Amino acid sequence: MYKVCKFGGSSLANAEQIKKACDIMLSDPTRRVMIVSAPGKRTREDTKVTDLLIALANAIISGYSAEDERQAVINRFSVIAEELGVDQAVMDEIEADIQSRMCKDCSSSMRFMDIIKAAGEDNCARLVASYLQSIGRTAEYINPKDAGLLLTEEYGNAQVLPDSYAALYQLRNVQGISVFPGFFGYTPDGQIVTFSRGGSDITGSIIAAATDAQVYENWTDVDSVYSVNPSLVSHPNPIREITYDEMRELTYAGFTVLHEEALAPTYRKGIPVNIRNTNNPTAPGTMIVRNRVNFEGVVTGIAGAKGFCSLNMSKYLMNREIGFALRVLQILADEQIPFEHMPSGIDSLSIIMRKSYFTPDKERLIIDRLSRELSIEKLSVNRNLSIVIIVGEAMARTVGVTARAANALSKAGVNLEIINQGSSEISVMFGVREEYCNYAVKELYKEFFQR
Ligand code: ASP
């Protein structure tokens, strides 16, 4: 057995949490790789080390001395180092590391930002490995460059390069626990580059896939993934087992337990992902698997996300015009706007996008091009749209789920602006006004889980 375990920021926020994480690693000798985030928040009001580092980088980029920001970062690490009782030499090494990053060329702010951001995970890994060694355990800090984690040169949004997988397989030869910093890797020409925020989940998934792990354990601060956002419903239904596809849909619409891109590497290899709670390690957590065997109910989860808009168009005899949709999408592609859904009628088409991409400026430009280049007769934009989805693998073989959901929403007085079902039939999406988003989620939860 070979297990890869990732610990998030709240699991490493202070010495007490780091000790819990290390105990979890040591309680099972098959837990061989420990991916660490940067120390996170200790209290609600606290600041994550990554955010302290971003402030540090911004201060330097803006030409300030950044001494206060540097001190804030050093303080977080030195409190932890002291409480863990590791040698002063470790803290000296961390200070020197941060100092040397601060001296790097900051003329490319994106590149410089990643160098500084990566210091959180990198030094946390050094600290954790030293602690494990100080209590007499075999553990090694692994540098992602030496291990061969190669990423594309997309600062703040890197993607893994395929050659990484074979190189990272060699981690299996390391004795004891490999402590691997999450969130960053190197470009083929040796530049530090990070994933997007929350990206240590992606590192864990890549390492699990590369080392052919039996399981990828993702240790966080909740007992499981729940069928609905726990801030909307008290005592929500815990999900014991969920498929990658179901999880993907729910993450898309607002579930935040895992980074959106984190499932792809484990998904391709079929490696199960186990979400666990560092503060309650005996809880079994949630298993994310390729095929489920347990089906408790027809719906697995319900999610809602705000911040969408729809561009609606109609043109008489649109369905006869070959290449019409292609030309609409080409205009969006020219403006670098991704689309999310595209429900259509015979002579009408709607494109659902995120408002963050379809800005008012882009809207003017696109409407102008659509009317000029495609002679569209009716064009309108709805900027008040949220999407609510119900997800469940069992929906494909159950009659009447959409009817039940639509009926529940209609009884609750929620107008459905859009209904869309993907061909996989594992989810149904409803477009509702943003002010109804949370209400609609709660009403759907009542219908499918509280009757
Ligand atoms: N520390 C990084 C962040 O806060 C990455 C991570 O924790 O996954 O985004």
Outline the structure in words.
- With 451 residues, the chain is α/β, with parallel strands linked by helices.
- It folds into two domains: 3-289, Acetylglutamate kinase-like (Carbamate kinase, 3-Layer(aba) Sandwich); 301-449, VC0802-like.
- The protein is 37% helix and 20% strand.
- It has 15 helices and 17 strands.
- The chain has helices spanning 15-26, 49-61, 67-84, 88-102, 109-117, 119-134, 144-147, 164-168, 200-210, 244-252, 263-269, 324-334, 360-374, 401-411, 437-449; strands spanning 3-7, 31-36, 139-141, 177-181, 184-186, 192-194, 215-220, 225-226, 238-239, 241-243, 273-277, 286-289, 301-314, 348-354, 378-391, 418-421, 427-432.
- The strands form four sheets. Strands 3-4-2-1-7-11-12-10 form an eight-stranded mixed sheet, with helices on both faces.
- β1 (3-7), α1 and β2 form a beta-alpha-beta unit.
- α1 (15-26) crosses α3 (67-84).
- The two termini are 42 Å apart.
- The model has no long low-confidence stretch (mean pLDDT 95).
- The chain binds aspartic acid.
- Aspartic acid is lined by residues 9, 37-38, 48, 50, 120, 182-183, 197-201.
- Aspartic acid binds at residues 9, 37-38, 48, 50, 120, 182-183, 197-201.
Radius of gyration: 24 Å
* Number of discrete domains: 2
* Largest sheet properties: 8 strands, mixed
Helicity, in percent?
25-40%
**Name of the CATH class of the largest domain:** Alpha Beta
Low-confidence stretches: none
Strand arrangement within the widest β-sheet reads 3-4-2-1-7-11-12-10
CATH superfamily membership of the largest domain: Acetylglutamate kinase-like
